[in-house]
Queue: 4 jobs
Job 1
Amino acid sequence: MENRKTRVYISGKITGTTDFMERFARAEEKLKSEGYAVLNPAHANSYMPEDTTWEEYMKISMALLQMADAIYMLNGWEDSKGAKQEYETAVNPLHLKVMYENA
């Protein structure tokens, strides 16, 4: 088996917030400092055209999630339709390790 870092996908509320880039960036730095390879959907989605729909953002996010070994849930994720969908997918069918920001 190849030798690579554990990949962690960051999940949290984006829609309706103004500080999501900062929150996701802080989580990315924390996880990188702990030795993880990080999949940051907020960063990846920042390259999409302005008229990208929520459903299109979620397609990209779900593709990134499928590359992960674990999911890192930011505080407040329970208030996000997308993060709840990511959590459900991570648990079943992907069976990823679940990590929490406040743990």
Note: The chain has a mean pLDDT of 96.
Job 2
Amino acid sequence: MHKILVADDEKVIRDVIMRFLRLKGYDVYMAEDGLETIHKMATDNFDLLIMDLRMPGMKGQEILEQLRKSNKEIPVFILTGTIDADESAILRKLGYSSNDIIG
């Protein structure tokens, strides 16, 4: 079974995504801030990370940079309500494109 980590500071969003993915048969775990996301990624192996770009504790870009430094190869879907030019440039520099972002 595929393991997915859903990281978002809004409980309602985490719950909706979790319910949908569990109905589809995925094993879903949740994190509510950036630091918890990094901790879970460091202590477990996931097949996919679905994460908000703006969370307390650590910004999405910082999480992606930490993953890159740890050499964890994992697909990432980025959730965001808005994205500014600076965030977009940082994501492109890290190798992510608009296809990786769900807005």
Note: The beta strands are 3-7, 27-31, 48-52, 76-79, 101-102.
Job 3
Amino acid sequence: MSKEIWIKADGPDDREDRKDLVINALECGITNAIVRPEDKDFSSFGNVKLVYMENGKLSDGSMYVELRKPEDQDKALALAGKCKAVILGTSEWTIIPLENMIAKFHKTDTKVFACASDVEQAKTFLTTLEKGVDGVVVTVGSGDEVRPFANLCMESADVELTPLKVTDIRPIEMGDRVCVDTVTMMHPGEGMLIGSAASCLFLVQSESEDNGYVNARPFRVNAGAVHAYVLGPEGKTSYLAELRSGKTIVLVNAEGKTRLSSVGRCKIEQRPLLILEATDGKGKYTTILQNAETVKLVGPKGAISVSKIKPGDEVYARLEDGGRHFGMKIDETITEI
């Protein structure tokens, strides 16, 4: 996932309570835990990374700083660029110190983490100053209190979708098409953002609807040709041809709400293709998809099959300025046609 979620499991005096925290965290997808040195055997519960803390220093090179007074903030700020990460703990969080930390640390190689005792607090920390902290350390007293954080491990930043008007759709030659099978069941209206240019990614729906001839496969997105971009975590893109089993991918619905999943497998096969062109009134954008009725784009009126789309129909897309360098957004003048 793009942001790290840890569990602080070294607090309870009872070993069984500490054990319960780690087990529940693992079941929620949290695979980093701060534990006591005597709890090293907790690694047998699953693929979990354990770190130990002594006098504020963690075994992985991170530092833990409790923020109780202004001087503590100065101590934390002084660690920027001098350790792997700084974990900020406090019982009475205010946003201003956190903003100061994010502004200072994002220019260095040191990550900044914030301790959170509930999900809403964690969401606030992950989005403060837009960039947010690099991760959250869950600080709760029991395993049951970890459960609400499960969905947080799947969340990512929402995206803004713009309705584009289709100007043309027509068959082209055969080509290599990528089907992306995920480890997640998707809903109608939900899929992936795909496009021939990073400046415009179209919302391609999963195969989450029966059509009378083929059973629904809600885990699958028939995404498009191998050259196309697909949106990943932190706004980065990959080529469809680069996707591999285990790679994290972003799922998006018609409201722009997102969640993270992983690629289960990709299938690249030669199929008949078509090109769709659309406009927002300013620019012209394209994507290339398989010419099959099960392939659908999502628009203001719902999902519509490429076999039925016609000029004048509206479909959703994510628009952005700038260009891409190895999948990362950069501010430069670039034209992709």
Note: Residues 324-328 have pLDDT under 50 and may be disordered.
Job 4
Amino acid sequence: KWKLGRISPMLWLSTALIVGFGGLTIMLRDPVWIQVKPTAIYALFGVVLLGGALRGHGMLKYLLEAAFEGLSDAGWLKLSRNWGVFFFALAALNEVLRA
């Protein structure tokens, strides 16, 4: 917040998921909820990134534009697509390791 003057929407979302799944774990006394949290976050990021890429919008451009100056729109689409696939792979890996 000090650097940008606002809090990132991704940080708000991650915080809400952490508090929500952590609260479910404590209330229900079932550790499965905290174990599913990474899968939910990764799947959500994957859906957003791949959904944006399918619509022709490189969603990562809104978050990382300053870090990758000079990257073309086609480059942002490829980067968003690749990271979307990576997040889905992480979600699948978490489910394999959780089982």
Note: The mean pLDDT is 89.
